[in-house]
């Protein structure tokens, strides 16, 4: 390694998971300035922290996808986010038909709008609410749950599952031997998966015999010879990918966008008055606090030099998109939410052939949810008696968002 | 080599090897985008004129059928000629703009510093109640905008309400000076999007209209049109003025209330109290009167501070913002 002229990175030895989960921005700001590609001991991995290096690694022909160790421990193999070649192509071809824009446009409004209305009706006359638990997360999980074919699974159960899987997936700390520092942290994810299997296995049994238009039914049947279905063990890791990220992140995205707008009351008012601004507000919300902050990784397929660092073949690199989206080389005052900043592309949905497959779907879920929220409660205000706390390193968003309005 | 890309009234220069999205974003023109690699479809747009090279646009994201229909991915498409792009066409027609020569039929003083001007047209003018016309001030070339107080079927005699602006070119210099019946007036119209939705889309929901000064004019046309469509709908019309001397059309609006029991006209005086009328601001009167405006539409025409206060009042009573309409031109008497 050509580390001789690099800054002293001994401070990285003191970085803890707790610190990163509470506020990763401080450590990553220093990483971007001192070492945009650096080995972070607590993560047991190299980390890419700037927009340029994240994009380079994500799109480089000399890297392929790999799931993070804690992610792999949680999801198993073959999860769509951690496989390559034919298996990846097959899994993408399995999930993508339902997520194509032409397809999504066909039903997204009829799917999401009634769900948003239903949750709003429960509290719109109360004059106060906690939007993360009462609106953002329920609308997100119900929309995707109904799409997948999980209509009979309660929204609160889906929320419980993504929270448990999420904490397990990001239980990333390793000790000096590279072993998981908190192996007991995977227990709740294992428990959630057991529950998921108990509920989804009978559904799969039914879909094998009686296919319907639900996404998981299509995953089983599409592209298979007549009379055959994909093996459930083959698709479960990707079901878990959905039940974690795809369930949790639109809720994070909505809530972060709202917190950002509350920090700029005049911009909130603009967006409420002109719903056509909602997609832009969401885009800035995802840049400002990227829901998938640091949850994906790549591995080198041959010796490469990235950002001046020589990496041998087989070196994993974590992609810190949440940090890349605060890169001062790209964004002025990146920690400020600003609807009107120059609308440059961000990396919240990743890059390369593993970029998020659900971009279009997720953006529209968030858009419709915020449209309905502002339509029903145009006089929404943040309840300043309660603070807003963000949490998470792998996945990040506000833990709660208390609001009030006059009724 | 560069081409011009026109989008939403803006023109952006785009090099032959540059994507439409890149050119727009660099020029500060927002368009939805996410993956920037052709796979998510967020940046799909319609090429209205000109031609693009779809580049590496994947067939999965942009089908042959969509290409045939003129769609393109902004993040992949490069111009091969000047192009105009847009989202889905609105599909709604507007009344054609016309140059008019009108004859003054009547000029009458109806309130303090306020005149009603009736203009006769040789040919009927197609417009929607609430729209406005521009008058050419003789000799100065200046143009001034005045809302029509008419309903759409009153298409041969245009009714304008004019408030005198001390020293104003159009008012002190003309409409309050030499203007007389028989004069000829050059005008252009109709303009503006301050009008009811088409009748088929008008569900007869309750309405609140707030006008300041001669901002009452378009609201009279809108209220009468709304009540003709749905005679029993709830319509609250607030007229905010400084004092009782500024009020007008009390009889006409009183009669409207007799014909339509759910119509109410509420004058509100801000500066010169009078026991016969409510005091304060019309936007505050609305907040006092209406507990919830869920499902209502709102209509605002008047000085900008009144319009801003009206938007806040409507939202405070939870009227959906997309149902809040405001006349965007600044009435001549608003300054």
Automatic annotation (TrEMBL), chain A:
Instruction: Write out the entry's keywords from A to Z.
Output: Heme, Iron, Metal-binding, Monooxygenase, Oxidoreductase
The protein here is known as Cytochrome P450
Q: Which PROSITE patterns match?
A: CYTOCHROME_P450
Whether Acyltransferase counts among this entry's keywords is no
Record InterPro entries: Cyt_P450 (IPR001128), Cyt_P450_B (IPR002397), Cyt_P450_CS (IPR017972), Cyt_P450_sf (IPR036396)
Which family is this sequence assigned to? Belongs to the cytochrome P450 family.
A Pfam cross-reference name = p450
| Coiled-coil residues | none
Does Electron transport show up as a keyword for this record?
no
User: Which Gene3D superfamilies does this one have?
Assistant: Cytochrome P450
Organism, scientific name: Prauserella endophytica
Automatic annotation (TrEMBL), chain B:
- Cofactor (UniProt): FAD
Q: Which SUPFAM superfamilies match?
A: 2Fe-2S ferredoxin-like, Ferredoxin reductase-like, C-terminal NADP-linked domain, Riboflavin synthase domain-like
The entry's keywords: 2Fe-2S, Iron, Iron-sulfur, Metal-binding
Domain FAD-binding FR-type as annotated: residue spans = 97-197
Domain 2Fe-2S ferredoxin-type stretches: 1-91
Pfam families noted in UniProt: FAD_binding_6, Fer2, NAD_binding_1
Source domain of life: Bacteria
Q: What is this protein called?
A: 2Fe-2S iron-sulfur cluster binding domain-containing protein
The organism of origin for this protein? Prauserella endophytica
């Amino acid at each position: 390694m050509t580390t001789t002229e690099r800054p002293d990175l001994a401070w990285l030895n003191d970085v803890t998971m707790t610190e990163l989960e509470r506020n990763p921005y401080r450590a990553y700001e220093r990483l971007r300035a001192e070492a945009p590609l650096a080995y972070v001991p607590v993560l047991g991995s190299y980390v890419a922290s700037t927009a340029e290096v994240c994009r380079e690694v994500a799109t480089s022909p000399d890297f392929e996808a790999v799931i993070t160790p804690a992610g792999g421990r949680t999801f198993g193999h073959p999860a769509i986010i951690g496989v390559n070649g034919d298996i990846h192509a097959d899994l993408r071809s399995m999930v993508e038909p339902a997520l194509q824009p032409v397809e999504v446009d066909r039903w997204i409004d009829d799917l999401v709008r009634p769900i948003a209305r239903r949750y709003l009706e429960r509290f719109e006359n109360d004059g106060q609410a906690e939007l993360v638990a009462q609106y953002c997360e329920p609308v997100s999980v119900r929309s995707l749950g109904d799409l997948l074919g999980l209509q009979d699974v309660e929204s609160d159960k889906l929320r419980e599952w993504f929270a448990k899987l999420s904490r397990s997936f990001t239980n990333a700390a390793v000790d000096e031997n590279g072993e998981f520092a908190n192996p007991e942290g995977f227990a709740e994810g294992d428990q959630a998966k057991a529950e998921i299997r108990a509920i989804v296995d009978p559904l799969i049994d039914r879909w094998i015999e009686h296919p319907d238009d639900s996404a998981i039914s299509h995953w089983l049947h599409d592209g298979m010879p007549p009379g055959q279905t994909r093996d459930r063990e083959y698709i479960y890791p990707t079901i878990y990918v959905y039940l974690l990220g795809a369930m949790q992140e639109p809720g994070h995205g909505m809530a972060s966008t709202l917190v950002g707008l509350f920090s700029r009351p005049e911009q909130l008012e603009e967006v409420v008055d002109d719903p056509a601004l909602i997609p832009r507000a969401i885009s800035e919300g995802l840049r400002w606090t990227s829901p998938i902050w640091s949850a994906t990784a790549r591995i080198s397929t041959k010796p490469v030099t990235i950002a001046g660092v020589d990496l041998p073949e087989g070196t994993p690199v974590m992609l810190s998109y949440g940090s890349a989206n605060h890169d001062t080389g790209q964004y002025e005052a990146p920690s400020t939410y600003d609807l009107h900043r120059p609308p440059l592309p961000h990396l919240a949905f990743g890059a390369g052939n593993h970029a998020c497959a659900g971009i279009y779907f997720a953006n529209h879920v968030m858009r419709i949810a915020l449209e309905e929220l502002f339509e029903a409660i145009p006089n929404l205000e943040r309840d300043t008696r309660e603070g807003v706390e963000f949490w998470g390193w792998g996945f990040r968003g506000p833990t709660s968002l208390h609001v009030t309005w006059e009724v | 080599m560069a081409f011009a890309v026109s989008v939403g009234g803006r023109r952006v220069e785009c090099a032959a090897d540059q994507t439409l999205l890149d050119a727009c974003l660099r020029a500060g023109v927002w368009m939805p985008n996410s993956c920037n690699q052709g796979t998510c479809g967020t940046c799909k747009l319609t090429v209205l004129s000109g031609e693009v090279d779809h580049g590496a646009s994947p067939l999965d994201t942009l089908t042959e059928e969509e290409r045939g229909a003129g769609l393109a991915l902004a993040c992949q498409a490069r111009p091969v000629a000047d192009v105009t792009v847009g989202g889905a066409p609105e599909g709604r027609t507007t009344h054609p703009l016309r140059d008019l020569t009108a004859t003054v039929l009547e000029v009458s003083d109806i309130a303090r510093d306020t005149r009603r001007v009736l203009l006769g047209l040789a040919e009927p003018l197609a417009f929607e109640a609430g729209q406005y016309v521009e008058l050419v001030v003789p000799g100065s070339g200046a143009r001034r905008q005045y809302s029509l107080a008419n309903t759409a079927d009153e298409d041969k005699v245009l009714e304008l309400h004019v408030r005198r602006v001390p020293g104003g070119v159009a008012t002190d210099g003309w409409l309050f000076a030499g203007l007389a019946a028989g004069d000829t007036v050059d005008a252009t119209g109709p303009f503006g999007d301050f009008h009811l939705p088409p009748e088929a889309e008008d569900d007869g929901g309750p309405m609140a209209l707030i006008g300041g000064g001669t901002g009452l004019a378009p609201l009279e046309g809108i209220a009468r049109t709304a009540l003709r469509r749905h005679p029993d709908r709830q319509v609250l019309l607030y007229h905010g003025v400084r004092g009782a001397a500024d009020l007008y059309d009390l009889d006409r609006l009183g009669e409207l209330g007799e014909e339509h029991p759910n119509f109410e006209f509420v004058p509100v005086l801000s500066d010169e109290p009078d026991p016969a009328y409510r005091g304060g601001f019309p936007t505050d009167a609305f907040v006092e009167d209406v507990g919830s405006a869920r499902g209502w539409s709102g209509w605002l025409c008047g000085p900008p501070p009144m319009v801003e206060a009206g938007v806040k009042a409507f939202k405070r009573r939870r009227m959906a913002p997309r149902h809040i309409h405001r006349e965007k031109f600044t009435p001549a008497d608003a300054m």
